[in-house]
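Example 5.3 — Putative glucose-6-phosphate 1-epimerase
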Amino acid sequence: MNLTHLPTISVLSDCVTIAQLDDVKVVRVLHEKAEAAISLHGGHVLSFTPKGQDDLIWMSKDAIFNPDKAIRGGVPVCWPWFGRIANPAHGFARNSTWTLVEHRENENGVMVVLGLETSEETKAIWPCEFEARLTVEIGDQLTITLNAKNTDNKAWNCSGALHSYLNVADINTTTITGMGSSYIDGLLEGKVCSGGDTLSIDAAVDRVYTQPQETITVSDTQRSLSVTNAGHNAAVIWNPWIEGAESMGDMNNDGYQTMVCVESTYHATSLDVAKVIQPNESFTLSTTITA
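Solution (predicted structure tokens):
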């Protein structure tokens, strides 16, 4: 993503500005270590380009940057649930407006903290009190940490995912390792399956790997990306393939050829069996992406 051409709204520091991208505001980071963009709509990382590299994050060429719609590509924040276990699918965080809480920078990089808290809009969807913080650390690597604190007087349940779309040279020559062998296949009505220790993709894939290693490696002909997760109980791997890409109005038809999602996920089949967070405790999920 070309960040330099975006119109500047305000300058916050030498490295951090607020810029306009169609109908959404983005926190733009231009540092000697890396460039990045984070949409305030959705708390959504759109781009991360370390010095001397191509963007590690994939964005759809047909993505719609509008506050009424989740953004296709980047790193959507799926919370307080992941999947279709409640409405809307993947929760409300990716469709909510986050606020810039804090930003810091030094010679090693930039840290940006966004916040989302209980509102009338969130209570209409999920009747719970919370305070969420999304910390994005931009340097030689990208680290995204979601921390959601229970500020209610009762326990609540949640699941979630950091739905990372990774940029690959060619899906046909990409291999994935470290995801483990056991998975739930979303294309086979949730059938539990077992596979090998290396995944090559030549058709649509929608899998929840239930015993992933801490680090999953995605390798193509040009580079290897490592995805190191914490706070998760699963890793989702997804590529919609030809028919899936063609069915989505906000995904370019050939987009499936240069992307794969490898997601830090806390998976649950329903909110009733999701992670229980007691008052004053927090749900934390993170992912670190490195070339």
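Remark. The longest strand covers residues 109-117.
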